[in-house]
Amino acid sequence: LVVSGPSSARAEKRTASLTVPVELGERGYPIYIGPGLLEAGAWCSHISGRRVGVVTNEVVGPLYLSACVAALEGAGKEVVSLVLPDGEEHKSMKQLERTLDFALESKLDRASCLVALGGGVIGDLVGFAAAVYQRGVDFVQIPTTLMAMVDSSVGGKTAVNHPRGKNMIGAFYQPICVVADVSLLDTLPDREFNSGLSEVIKYGLIRDAGFFEWQEANVGALVARDPSAVAHAVEQSCRNKAAVVAEDEREAGVRATLNLGHTFGHAVETCSGYGTYLHGEAVAIGTAMAADMSRRLGWIDEALERRAVDLLRAARLPTSAPRKMTPADFLDIMAHDKKVKDGQLRLILLKGELGSCVFTPDFDTAKLQETLHAFTTTTAALE
Ligand SMILES: NC(=O)c1ccc[n+]([C@@H]2O[C@H](COP(=O)([O-])OP(=O)(O)OC[C@H]3O[C@@H](n4cnc5c(N)ncnc54)[C@H](O)[C@@H]3O)[C@@H](O)[C@H]2O)c1
Ligand SMILES: O=C(O)C(=O)C[C@@H](O)[C@H](O)[C@H](O)COP(=O)(O)O
Ligand SMILES: [Zn+2]
């Protein structure tokens, strides 16, 4: 499978809101992007039932729960809320069970709606709870991190982690709308913001050369969190993700390309203990490893590998693996990757020009070994 995509238009000054549709027929929905959307509350009109359960965490709750509840009550909803502990280690069966207990204790019925107010951890967990509670209730994604706005709130991959692997227990289940209120990013710490940039860079590398070039030219504005640069990055990321998801909702083929760097990255997250590396940091390391392996295979030239690594570093992301990890650590965890088919590892690797990649089991495994050794015996393959 080979994919490459359209280049993106130049960013314009933007303050207004816009909508990106996710075209999935009866499961389709809008992504609203703009400042002030949470409070404005227009999104509440998507919710048909009267009772709503808002789930957030103990960091986001004090910041935005009251605005969310006020918007819902203003729209005539009866609102109950649950505040979960913060952190990747709580994207767990235990907190899923707590969320389902809350839904039952609050007497939420099949017409009720769950609202995920938080980053990717809350979005993934609450989405999974919505998928299984009474065999499925509506849910709304209100992403509050860059990671969640550019990636996790869109596309319906919901899950909790297992100690042996990321997102091992989950479902494909789409929200009824996504509310990306970019003003909520004002309170997000820089390390978390930069983590989200890792997935933004991914879209450029796998399918949107023009977007990658725009990022190279604007990475300073992005890390400085210039509002129009951030709004453009969110919009263009959502357009890329929505297009891939519309083509392949359940990852039969092209959707796997959204996993660039994730086979290595998930191994880093699992081996280091959830939360040690942020998801985007682990994906950045994994992307550098995928670029290294692609170059060793002769599928990309050194200049393209250099550009990928330079952009990741300019976004203040790590590109070397944890010192304590061995090639065997990577291989053990990668053997459980969800893309493994009949025991065969399949990887997303860069191939050809910028913006093109392949999802393939056909690679020289000696090159994989070389990459694993390069990243575990030196601080970085490409200094
Ligand atoms: N479903 C998907 O397609 C998909 C895509 C990408 C990532 N993910 C998953 O998403 C998770 C990572 O998401 P994340 O990076 O958002 O992490 P996160 O949800 O843990 O949020 C990061 C941190 O920022 C805090 N926070 C959130 N919003 C804030 C705000 N506005 N102001 C201040 N602090 C805020 C959180 O409490 C947390 O401490 C991982 O579990 C990853 O696997 C899923
Ligand atoms: O939406 C997708 O498809 C992705 O792969 C997006 C990834 O960024 C995300 O981290 C996703 O949760 C990974 O899914 P998994 O199937 O590898 O667990
Ligand atoms: Zn990811």
Could you write a compact summary of the structure shown?
This protein is α/β, with parallel strands linked by helices and 383 residues long. The protein has two domains: 182 residues, Rossmann fold (3-Layer(aba) Sandwich), CATH 3.40.50.1970; 177 residues, Up-down Bundle (Dehydroquinate synthase-like, alpha domain). The chain is built from 13 helices and twelve strands.
Polypeptide structure, described:
- Pathway: Metabolic intermediate biosynthesis; chorismate biosynthesis; chorismate from D-erythrose 4-phosphate and phosphoenolpyruvate: step 2/7.
- It is found in: Plastid, Chloroplast.
- Its main location: plastid.
- Belongs to the sugar phosphate cyclases superfamily. Dehydroquinate synthase family.
- Residues 82-194 form the 3-dehydroquinate synthase N-terminal domain.
- Helix 7 runs antiparallel to helix 8 and helix 10 (279-296) packs antiparallel against helix 11.
- The chain has 13 helices and 12 strands.
- The protein starts with a strand and ends in a 6-residue tail after the last helix.
- The radius of gyration is 20 Å and the shape is globular.
- It has 2 domains: 6-187, 3-Layer(aba) Sandwich (Rossmann fold), CATH 3.40.50; 201-377, Up-down Bundle (Dehydroquinate synthase-like, alpha domain).
- It has a 7-stranded mixed beta sheet with strand order 2-3-10-7-6-4-5, sandwiched between helices. It has a 3-stranded antiparallel beta sheet with strand order 1-12-11.
- It has helices at residues 37-40, 60-74, 93-105, 120-132, 146-152, 190-207, 209-223, 227-247, 262-272, 279-296, 302-314, 327-334, 365-377; strands spanning 2-4, 18-22, 29-34, 51-57, 78-84, 113-118, 138-143, 157-162, 165-172, 177-181, 347-350, 356-360.
- Strand 6 (113-118), helix 4 (120-132) and strand 7 form a beta-alpha-beta unit.
- The chain is α/β, with parallel strands linked by helices.
- The structure holds nicotinamide-adenine-dinucleotide, ligand LNCXM5UN and zinc ion.
- Zinc ion is lined by residues 151, 199, 262, 279, 283.
